[in-house]
Design brief:
Helix content is 85%, strand content 0%. It is mostly helical and 468 residues long. The chain has one domain. α2 packs antiparallel against α3, α3 packs parallel to α11 and α12 packs antiparallel against α16. It is globular and about 70 Å long.
Length: 468
């Protein structure tokens, strides 16, 4: 099985291989974003627009959970992919078991802390007296899903790293589809009528189902992950350090999203001319719509990562370059299409999230979606370069690419543009940060392609004995 998967990653024609790995990952990301979107739509229909604000208040915590899972998942899968390419079974085994162990420890500690200090956390996140009740109902079940969700994210990334992209896809589809099915049953009066709590309970059950499937698949004989529960008692701090160093750019990128959502929530409370809860709800809808439209693009680079990591480890630099260039081409085309859809169909998108066609709610959303698409035209290059550097084990470079948008551009722009333009400044910040970081990443992308080509040229100058 290991030899067969090595042949696939190292020998299959690049375009065919990219589609083989990226399509399942893209479908999985699309489904994952879809159920977040449907969750919001059902909640709006069942409990009104203000209830969406509760999801927005809890979003920083959900993003933090996602960041932890991806940090360990991408860090471990990068180590695993390169070891897989070298045929180093010991490093493969240690990367998997260390990620699962340390994630379990950290996730359990965060769960306990969050349950004890939930009210204080929600106030920090920007809750108001009007929406804090909704937010507390939702967050309780989200906290309980912390450990199962982060564990499933780790195993999803590792499944892709071993060439079993379809397993990762099915796992996420199970979570998404079960959530979509359970949401109306738990939310609406014709079902259990639990409202916001019902939406969160449905999410918790979906995460558990997703974890069950991916765990069983990872323990099967078809997997080369070699999960060993006895290894959990052997703490491997050196592997933990390497995993975190590689995965920390992803953690910071997503962790900064948590901070930025908190910052925006507070700025909305400060600058909204009226009804800040409505503006916070609109912001929540925008976040979910943008995730729905952008996450499939992230799925594409998720398919590229194991190809790049394996072939870099195997020193097949032409395949490495081809996989990165082809992924970039498809990603840029996709984001151009997304920008057109958002610009021309913004009103219809907002109508999905309002029970009574609230004119203020719709007009705020339409205004935002006339600005945001500008940045979509450039953001693909940042997606690519951050993922390439993680795949190759260059954490500092991935770290700087990740920070270029959220820390170096977004935060200064947010606090400069919002006092000048009010709420509109928040939407302008999206476009400015996506555009500038994307342009910066384009220059980095061109530079790295030249480096890959140099490695290819150097390989051709080696003697046969040196190649061996």
């Amino acid at each position: 099985m290991q030899h067969e998967q090595s042949m696939i990653l190292g020998e299959m024609e690049i375009k065919k291989l990219l589609f083989k790995l990226a399509i399942p990952a893209t479908i999985a990301m699309f489904a994952n974003a879809l159920y977040n979107l449907v969750d919001t739509i059902f909640l709006a229909w069942g409990s009104g627009e203000i209830a969406i604000g509760a999801l927005t208040i809890v979003l920083p915590f959900q993003t933090l959970i996602f960041a932890i899972g991806l940090m360990f998942g991408i860090g471990a899968s990068s180590i695993f992919s390169r070891a897989f390419g070298r045929g180093d079974k010991e490093v493969m085994r240690r990367s998997v078991n260390s990620a699962l162990f340390f994630n379990g420890v950290i996730a359990t500690m965060l769960t306990i802390i969050s349950l004890i200090f939930m009210d204080e956390i929600l106030l920090i996140f920007g809750a108001t007296p009007i929406n804090i009740g909704f937010a507390k109902d939702y967050m309780f079940w989200i906290v309980l899903s912390l450990l199962p969700f982060t564990t499933s994210l780790i195993l999803n990334n590792l499944a892709r790293a071993e060439g079993r992209a379809s397993i990762a896809m099915i796992s996420l589809l199970i979570g998404a589809l079960s959530n979509v099915i359970l949401d109306p049953i738990f939310i609406f009066d014709w079902g259990l009528g639990l409202g916001v709590s019902g939406a969160a309970m449905a999410t918790f059950i979906a995460k558990m189902l997703m974890l069950t499937f991916i765990l069983v698949a990872s323990l099967s004989k078809k997997s080369v992950l070699h999960i060993d529960s006895s290894a959990f008692y052997s703490v491997d701090f050196s592997m933990f350090k390497e995993t975190v160093i590689i995965g920390v750019p992803t953690f910071i990128r997503n962790g900064l999203v948590s901070f930025l959502v908190i910052a925006v929530n507070h700025l909305i409370n400060q600058y909204a001319p009226t009804q800040p809860e409505i503006y916070i709800s609109v912001y929540g809808v925008i976040n979910r719509l943008v995730a729905f439209l952008l996450l499939p693009g992230f799925g594409l680079v998720q398919g590229m990562i194991p190809i790049a990591g394996f072939n870099y480890g195997a020193k097949k630099y032409q395949r490495l370059k081809d996989s990165v260039a082809l992924s970039t081409k498809y990603l840029v085309i996709y984001f151009v299409i997304v920008s057109v859809i958002v610009f021309f169909f913004s009103r219809y998108l907002m109508l999905l999230f309002t029970r009574e066609a609230n004119p203020l709610f719709i007009s705020i959303g339409v205004q935002a979606f006339k600005v945001l698409p500008i940045g979509f035209l450039f953001v693909g290059y940042q997606f690519i370069m951050s993922s390439v550097y993680q795949a190759l084990g260059y954490p500092v470079r991935a770290f700087l690419i990740a920070l270029s948008r959220q820390l170096f551009i977004y935060i200064p722009a947010l606090y400069i543009l919002t006092p000048i333009f009010g709420i509109t400044g928040i939407w302008l910040t999206y476009a400015v940060s996506d555009g500038l970081s994307g342009i910066l990443s384009w220059f980095v992308y061109r530079y790295e392609l030249k480096i890959f080509q140099q490695k290819i040229d150097d390989a051709f100058t080696l003697s046969p004995s040196e190649i061996i």
